[in-house]
Every structure is written in C-alpha cells, then in structure tokens.
Amino acid sequence: MTADQLRSTCFVAGLVLFGLLEWLEPRAPLSEPRRVRWTANLGLAALNAIVLRLQIGAIFFAWVIWVERQGIGLFGWLTWPGWVEVLLTVVLLDYSFYLFHQWLMHRWPFGWRFHKVHHTDLNLDVTTASRFHLGELIISMLYTAIVVAIIGAPLAGVVAYEAAKLAAAQFNHSRLRLPRRFERVLGWVVVTPAIHWLHHSWEPQELNSNYSNIFSLWDRIFRTFRGEADESKLVLGLKGHREGNRLRLPDIFAIPFR
Ligand SMILES: [Zn+2]
Ligand SMILES: [Zn+2]
C-alpha cells in the first residue's frame, strides 16, 4: 500500500467510524443544517486531495525518502533502534505541529488568514477535521519538510505520524460524547473533543489556547492549556463570520484573500 492509499483508507475509516459514533451519541445539538457545512468541509477535503496529495504530496514524500537516504538530521548522527525512531518521530512532529499551530497559524497574521477558514465552522463534527484551506496545508507541508530534515525522520515515522495526526483530528473534532470522567482521564494523555472544542470557541482567550493535536502534554507544559469546554455555554465559530449562509464553499475559500 502506498502512503497515499494508506492515508485515504485512514480518512474514510475515521470518517465512517466517528461519523457513526457522533450520530449515535452526540455531544451537542446542531445549530446549522449539515448540508452547507458538509459541502464546505468535504469539498475542501476533495480539493486538497486533488491538488496536494496527488501533486505536491509526491514531492514531499520524495523529500522524506531523500532525507532518510542522506542520513542527515538528529537521527542521522544519533542512531536508535528503528521503532524508537518511529515513535520519537511521531512525538516530535506532534510537538512541531503544536508550535506551527500556535505561532504560524494563530500569531502570524498571514498564516491566520488561511487558518481562519478552519475556525469558521459553526458546528463541529468529524468533517471539521478536513476543513483546511489549501494555503494552510501548503505552508504546513513546507514547514513539516524542514522539521523532517532537522529530525532526520524515517519515512515510516512520517507515515505513522500522518495517520495518527488525521485520526486524532477526526476524534477531537467529532461530536461524540464520552462519559465525563473517562474523557477527563483520557485528556491527560491525548486531546479529547472537550479539549479541542474549547479551541473553537469565539472567545479570544479560549481560541488562543489548547493548540495541541495528538498529545495534550504540549499545552500543559507550555501553559496554553485552558481546560475543557462546557458545551452548554460554548459558542463555536468566529466573530464576524457567524452567518451560516455566507459560509458556503466558495465563500470560505475566498476568506484569506479578502
Ligand atoms: Zn486553531
Ligand atoms: Zn480544530
């Protein structure tokens, strides 16, 4: 199976699994019809797959393979058993994502133009994990390419990370309601929906917190953790982008250029 096939398989499996679970056990009622949001979110997913996975993605993976063959970066001169390198790659890339999300997507005005699109969703579910502007994914891929070279990440580690990143995002955006206590305990290790939903709040202090994707530890270490969302008080989305009928696919694609 190629990296692309693996990614598509994980994407569909996660979509079906979390889609079914959140439908059976929803965390909060929907305030907007699914149609507009799903067209926007899955439309972006399709566009990104066509442009990114099929074109630029090949260059990215060629780069990862080249880095591994050259033996550059951290793992180039510090050699560990293969499985340790794979595990460390997942952890280090998740940490690099935390920095990317906070500094390049929220604090850098140019990055925020693109990342805004992700935050305009007025409800959250498994499809929000695909609501990313092409511009954000291109910046993200360039950034990850640099990080991969610094780490000297093995291809297997990068592929494992990509799969884990996607599964984590599908889980922490989903509407799935978990038993409160279980979710609280789980939240000490990984980012749960209660943690990531708070990041989608329209309140600036909450929006600028909880940046982690897979492991919740980064927010806790660097003091950007603001706890879990209380769905009964939470308002999702962005101030100034609250009209559902103005958040159709062409509208949200144009947001960065306005
Ligand atoms: Zn964000
Ligand atoms: Zn999100």
Q: What global shape is seen?
A: globular
State the distance separating the first and last CA atoms.
41 Å
Average pLDDT score? 94
Helix content estimate: 55-70%
Total of helices: 12
Strand content: under 5%
Give the ligands present: zinc ion
In words, what does this structure look like?
This protein is an all-alpha fold and 258 residues long. The chain has one domain. 64% of the residues lie in helices and 0% in strands. It has helices at 3-24, 34-70, 74-77, 82-107, 109-119, 134-151, 155-173, 180-186, 193-199, 204-207, 217-221, 249-254. The protein starts with a helix and ends with a helix. The model has no long low-confidence stretch (mean pLDDT 94). Bound molecules: zinc ion (ZN) (2 copies). One zinc ion binds next to helix 9. One zinc ion (ZN) binds next to helix 4 and helix 5.
Task: Explain briefly what this protein structure is.
The chain is an all-alpha fold and about 260 residues long.
Layout of secondary structure:
Layout: H1 3-24, H2 34-70, H3 74-77, H4 82-107, H5 109-119, H6 134-151, H7 155-173, H8 180-186, H9 193-199, H10 204-207, H11 217-221, H12 249-254
Helix pairs in contact: 1-7, 2-6, 4-5, 4-6, 4-7
Task: Write out key terms for the chains shown.
single chain, 258 residues, mainly alpha, 12 helices, 0% strand, globular, binds zinc ion
